[in-house]
Design goal:
Layout (H helix, E strand, L loop, with lengths): L5 H16 L14 H15 L9
Helix pairs in contact: 1-2
Amino acid sequence: MAKYSKASQKKVEKAMHEMHEGKLKSGKSGKKVTNPKQAIAIGLSEARKEGNKAPRKKS
């Protein structure tokens, strides 16, 4: 059983690609993202906003 839908995986892949190019910015501060875990979190967050299947945010 997959944790993420294909659309969610695409969002995470896109965020990782942008991070490696140096184009991915953090939402609030606008700083450049360098941590891969942060890039994954941003990708999943975008996927959740679109309503794609993604695990809930841990709180």
